[in-house]
Amino acid sequence: MEYRLSGIATAAAIGAGALLPGAASAQTLDLSVTIPQLRVAEYHRPYVAVWIQKEGGPTKTLAVWYDSDAKEGSKGTKWLVDIRTWWRASGRTMKFPADGISSATRAPGTHKLSFVGGRSALPTLSPGKYFVTVEASREVGDIEKVRLEFTWDGSKAVSVRGSGSKELGAISLTLKR
Known about the structure:
Blueprint: E1 2-4, H1 11-14, E2 28-35, E3 47-54, E4 59-65, H2 75-78, H3 84-89, E5 102-103, E6 109-116, E7 128-137, E8 143-152, E9 158-163, E10 170-176
Parallel strand pairs: 1-6, 4-5
Antiparallel strand pairs: 2-6, 2-10, 3-4, 3-7, 7-8, 9-10
């Protein structure tokens, strides 16, 4: 499945500093996230958060998958605190649903996300060292985090891969201009 997220992020929305808009041509970040099929007695789809951070800078949430269709008011958002690292970094300051960022949980399988710098949840990236983190938390399950590190020079394509061992499978990222 492929999901395209759109929206507008500005330097003011993410804090001045590390992630700056203004590059001449569009940057595209393609991310592939695999949620493994688990053989367990009681399976619940995981809540997942994806965010980017320039070394020493603020975090910017790219996607949050949660029970956005919960019938009981804030029931779906109640469990977002279980995506602990993301929650402490930026989740607790967000209002949900977050346009262009939040969506429903995903079934097991490989899910593709694509972000265009400056025209989606992804701001235009200045050269530097970055981290993209994918964190998953599942009811009656575990919490797992995969962190991909890369250096962006502003023009040369970058590809990075990682993998989880429980709640997340293969994670891959490609950033190009």
